[in-house]
Amino acid sequence: MSAIFFYLATVLVYGAVDAMACLALNVEFGFAGLSNFGFIIFQAVGAYVAAALSMGPWKSSNGGFQQYVFGWHLPFPFPWIGAALAGGLLALPFVFLVGKRLRGDFAAVGLLVSAVLLNQLVNNYVPLFNGAAGISIVPAPFQGFWNPQSLGYQFAYGGVAAVLSILTYFLLRRITESPYGRSLRAMRDNDIVADSLGKNLRVQRTSIMVLGGMIAGLSGAILVGFINLWAPGAWGYAETIVLFAAIIVGGAGNHKGAVLGAILVPLGFEEITRFIPPLSNPSLIPALQWVAIGLLIILFLWFRPNGILPERRRILSGGEVLAPAPATSNDDGEPLINLGNLDNMDFRSLLRLKGDAGEHDVILSTEGLSRSFHGVTVVSDVSIQIQRGRLTGLIGPNGAGKSTTLAMLAGTLAPSSGKIFYEGRDISSMPSHQRAQAGIVRTFQLASEFKKLTVLENLVCAIPHQSGDSFVGAARGRRHWGREDQENIERAKEMLDGFGLSQYADSYAGGLSGGQRRLVEIMRALLAEPKVLLLDEPMAGVHPNLAHKIGDQLTRLVESGMTIAMVEHELAIMDAFCDPVIVLAEGQVLAEGTMAELRAKAEVVEAYLVG
Predict the structure, then answer these.
(1) What is the enclosing helix (H) or strand (E) of 257?
(2) How many CB atoms lie within 10 A of CB 226?
(3) How far, in Å, CA of 383 to CA of 584, rounded?
(4) Does residue 581 sit in helix, strand or coil?
(5) Please, what is the angle between helix 2-26 and helix 151-176, to 10°?
(6) Gap between the Cα atoms of 292 and 302, Å rounded
(7) CATH code of residue 500
(8) Pick from 235, 263, 287: which residue ends a domain?
(9) CB 556 within 8 A of CB 548
(10) 396-449, pLDDT tens digit by residue?
């Protein structure tokens, strides 16, 4: 009977360790979109540091038969604290290595290669890590006062591990259910757009990598203190695949799903194999275990890609999720969107506009702006001036460089040469998130909504200066940011009501029609409180009647002090609302003036206005 209890205590410890690891990896992958295929290294480093810190100097400890560093013989809990700090510190060079480009397949491969290289270093460098032999006879916490082999000690150890796992769950829930967590999921869905809205991707990724590394390091310390052994062969990069499998099965972006996945995959598979009778080939069972894990990943990705417990929808409106009403259509069968009280909206108050049209001085300008892609020049020596409090149009044939110019103004693309000036300052090297924070906000030519965020979340996410939109602010809890967040939600709901999309507030933005997504992007950009709004074909997919209504509101915005530059192919929109209009052709400025003046110029007519 006692053997069963010892077994249950062991399962409790391993379950807690696996749960902590899956929670940490889930916040990186499921919430922040970081494919950290080097995750196991953080756990291994934490385990090593905890083992070494709990032992004495290697020359005198246990006969001096093994080599390691940090042999300080520290009492509990200092080895565990050191392990968590080591895991967090290890994250810094990873972030520095890949920096702002920490995304997508390149990041996954880079982190995987880093994990393989570090594993090879540890296995082969004896003076620092004792090579493949690792570290043995690691003292257990309080072993001088309590027998680590006793049942009471084992269950107490498992209880401490379980409590730390529960605390980890609530800490990560506190972080991710905040405005900061909303920004993390926005970065996961579309990091370029999040960057253009003022989100500092480097800071967000650093904080999450450090947090995940600290939790991984602590989980490694718990494990090594229990098994009293650290062997580098047990921390191979393939172990990370097991943790990813657990998250895929349980449900990425769901903390409960991560815990469930930890129970089903790393813990479950390990325990099930104990009941398989011995085979003639002892290596067959581990091989079959990897085959089973691979098949499990494939099956879930095919039949249930969101896992057993999918990421839950956040309902910010306070009401029930209703099925969107069917869209009406005009006589031609084209879908229509009926604007709400847009004409009655107080944009100056809602968007916190502080100025007015003023003297129409130059707020944004370029000198000799050029951009090349792989030797092909797309924008060449463009010098333009955008005046404060005006709606400036950019037109030109396809491939004229309009969207590229807009992207360089916003900082999404770096110019190959030339300068950009904003309010008299040279901002040519300023990153896009800082430009957004300074008041330059853009929309995109293609749909750029955050697909797995609701429409209301898309809008609230863009509002700047949120007290809960930082790691520290999120950690302070809802009491710190809750009231302000509710006020921001009400602002976003007012905007939705004005654009007639209130019924979609709690719908996922990725499920809307093209025209509706375009409106969500415009609303989101407006709530970012821009001084200069750069619109890239905002009327694409929007019915002409609605486009003219939106144009009327853009005119109201510039009268209230906002500056707008708009790329648009529909010349009727340019005629009605834009003054001046800049014509680009073959990457160069061809002409500038009102539409009436441009129609009088033969070179403009020949290049663009014919037909």
Answers:
(1) helix 255-262
(2) 22
(3) 11
(4) strand
(5) 20
(6) 15
(7) 3.40.50.300
(8) 235
(9) no
(10) 888 889 999 999 999 999 999 999 999 999 999 999 999 999 999 999 988 789
Q: Is the preceding peptide bond at 77 cis, omega within 30 degrees of 0?
A: yes
CA separation for the pair 239, 262 (Å, rounded): 12
Query: What's the domain count of the chain?
Result: 2
Whether residue 555 sits in one domain with residue 454: yes
44 is written with which tokens? 């291994």
CB 459 within 8 A of CB 350: no
The three-class DSSP label of residue 238 is: helix
pLDDT of residue 48: 93
Average confidence score pLDDT of the chain: 87
Domain that holds residue 591: 328-609
Looking at 211, 235, 259, the residue that finishes a domain is 235
- For residue 376, list its beta bridge partners: 373
Other CB atoms within a 10 A radius of the CB of residue 503 amount to 14
Residue with tokens 């246990």: 62
pLDDT at 535 over 50: yes
Helix (H, G, I), strand (E, B) or coil at 306: coil
Q: Cβ(169)–Cβ(424) under 8 Å?
A: no
Q: Render pLDDT for 285-334 as a digit per residue (tens, 0 to 9).
A: 667 777 778 888 888 989 899 999 999 999 988 765 555 544 444 444 44
CA neighbours closer than 13 Å in the CB half-sphere of residue 256 = 5
Question: Left if phi > 0, otherwise alpha if psi is -120 to 50, otherwise beta: which for 198?
Answer: left
Which of 8-22, 67-81, 106-120 comes out lowest in average pLDDT? 106-120
Between CA 212 and CA 473 the distance in angstroms is 18
Cα→Cα distances 68→42, 75, 498, 606, Å: 18, 18, 66, 76
How large is the greatest C-alpha to C-alpha distance in the chain, in angstroms? 97
Q: Is the dihedral of CA 13, 18, 19, 24 positive or negative?
A: positive
C-alpha–C-alpha distance, residues 252 and 609, integer Å? 51
Tens digit of each residue's pLDDT (9 = 90 or more) over 476-487: 999 999 999 999
Question: Which has the closest alpha carbon to 436: 305, 532, 580?
Answer: 532
**Both tokens assigned to 215:** 């939790």
Asked whether residue 40 falls in the same domain as residue 158, the answer is yes
Cα(380)–Cα(401) distance, integer angstroms: 9
Is 440 in a helix, a strand, or coil? strand
